Amino acid sequence: MYQKYDVYKDSGLHWLGVIPDNWKIIKNKFLFNEINLRSFKSEHELLSVSQYTGVTKKSERIEVNEFLTNSNSLDGYKVVSKGDLVSNIMLAWNGSLGVSSYDGIVSPAYAVYRLVNNCCKEYFHYLLRTDLYKAEYKRQSTGVIESRLRLYTENFYAISSILPPLKDQQIISNFLKLKEMQIDQAIAIKEQQIALLNERKQIVIQQAVTKGLDPNVKMKDSGLEWIGKIPEHWQLSKLRYLGVTQNGISAGSEYFGSGYPFVSYGDVYKNRQLPLVVDGLAKSSIADQKNYSVLEGDVFFTRTSETVDEIGFASICYQTIEKATFAGFLIRFRPTNANYITKEFSKYYFNAQMMRTYFVKEMNLVIRASLSQELLKNLIVLLPSIDEQKAIASYLDRQMDAINELIGLQMSAIQKLKEYKTTLINDAVTGKIKVA
Predict the structure, then answer these.
(1) Average pLDDT over residues 53-61
(2) What is the number of alpha carbons within 13 Å of residue 113 lying toward its C-beta?
(3) Structural domain ending residue among the three candidates 345, 368, 383
(4) pLDDT > 80? residue 429
(5) Is residue 320 assigned to a domain?
(6) Does position 338 have pLDDT exceeding 90, yes or no?
(7) Is 58 part of a structural domain of the chain?
(8) Average pLDDT over the chain, rounded to an integer
């Protein structure tokens, strides 16, 4: 699709390979000056650096600056001017650097560099964030293990940059800005399609667990605004009459890390069906394993979090996990009669969108959102017959498989677009392809 340059030459660096004949290789120490100007004004815009987005305004990423404890807390931060290259010394190896589009300040843990020659800043933003250069940062960084790697200025200066003629730099950066915008728009469309498919899943689940599968069934008012009408022959019951609830185990840090299976908050929050093998381990006693057991048919609810949006998510245990216990941030509901509710129906019912409506409406927020057993016990459960529950669950399994397949196709397409963008940037800034 894209042409090559007419003539190539050896760059002299094994990790760079060949470059176009009229391009140069210049060490960063001849291209950049380190800027170490310090701020003593709290009104400066606080910036941060991400491997995904480059330099961004901190105010656009979080609502409240966790760094600010008083008006002088930003004294001594480094000043950044638009066009400066900002590098997170500790995370440069994973691409946490980029050219800033803003004036502002950054943490003293960052390095700030300014181009000394007449060069296209946007070109260097693309070049220095490629996988090729991230690998070189890793080689040049000091530190024994990955989490302690540091790319100090002398190491950054020792790295060589590819320098095309200024006209080519501008052509490449303009080309990549356009292509990046087009690819990102395509990704955004597919992400929107995934969001719509996920909404579709919720609509299908809500419809099935509240209306059943027979479109001609006679309906009655449930008496609950957040549920609406339900099939006339369905029963309603509070959760308290269907089983027992139990908070999880709370213990010090020494209790965890080894021993027997332990169901964590994340296991429940991330999965609508509990994994058969969980990562957590706890030094549980025989008594703990009896009191906080994890049995087939159990339903676990997230109990506490920073926000109400993460409360009340449910995960169903499809198969007993021997000798397992569960976290204090969870509530276990254990049905006492299998003739009332099946695990297959539970998986969908307790994760219907109306559950979010119920928990958000009823939750009392103080400092942290917390779901009490009493509130959970008052949750209304719709009860079709056992045969109807199984039919609904089987129908929803098929529907979810079909929708998840469509989501998988969109996710695969997004991954390919991201890979294409990465390859295109790398090839353009290193001269593998000629873009004009």
Answers:
(1) 81
(2) 27
(3) 383
(4) yes
(5) yes
(6) no
(7) yes
(8) 91
Chain centre to alpha carbon of residue 318: 27
Q: What is the domain count for the chain?
A: 2
User: How do residues 368-378 score in pLDDT, each as one tens digit?
Assistant: 567 889 999 99
Q: How confident is the model at residue 7 (pLDDT cuts 50, 70, 90)?
A: very high
252-258 long-range CB contacts below 8 Å, 24 or more apart? 254/283, 255/282, 255/283, 256/280, 256/281, 256/282, 256/283, 257/281, 258/283
Report whether 249 contacts 300 (CB < 8 A): no
Q: How confident is the model at residue 73 (pLDDT cuts 50, 70, 90)?
A: low
Q: What is d(CA 131, CA 94) in angstroms, rounded to the nearest whole number?
A: 9
Q: Following DSSP, what letter does each residue of 284-300 receive, concatenated?
A: --HHHHHHT-B-TT-EE
- Residue 18 belongs to a domain: no
The model's pTM: 0.83
**How many other β-carbons are positioned within 10 Å of the β-carbon of residue 316?**
25
Q: Contact at 8 Å (CB) between 28 and 127?
A: no
Residue 240 lies in a domain: yes
**CA atoms of 400 and 205, how far apart (whole Å):** 9
Does pLDDT of 65 surpass 50? no
131 and 255 co-located in one domain: no
Read off the CATH number of the domain in which 354 is found. Answer: 3.90.220.20
Which of 143-147, 153-157, 256-260 comes out lowest in average pLDDT?
143-147
Q: Are residues 145 and 276 in the same domain?
A: no
Among 140, 162, 184, identify where a domain stops.
162
Which amino acid does the sequence have at 58? K
Residue 133 in contact with residue 433, Cβ under 8 Å? no
Q: What is the DSSP string of 15-68?
A: TT-EEETT-EEEEGGGTEEE--PBP--TTSPBEEEETTTEEEEGGGT-SS-TT-
- Whether residue 70 is predicted with pLDDT greater than 50 in this model: the reply is no
What are 228's two structure tokens? Answer: 């609406």
- Structural domain range at position 97: 24-162
Determine the Cα–Cα distance for residues 385 and 378; give it in Å rounded to an integer. 21
Q: Which residues contact 225 (CB under 8 A, 6 or more apart)?
A: none
Which residue did the predictor score with more confidence, 74 or 112? Answer: 112
Rounded to whole angstroms, how far apart are CA atoms 111 and 35? Answer: 8
The pLDDT value given to residue 362: 75
Do 156 and 246 have their domain in common?
no
Tell whether 138 and 251 lie within a shared domain: no
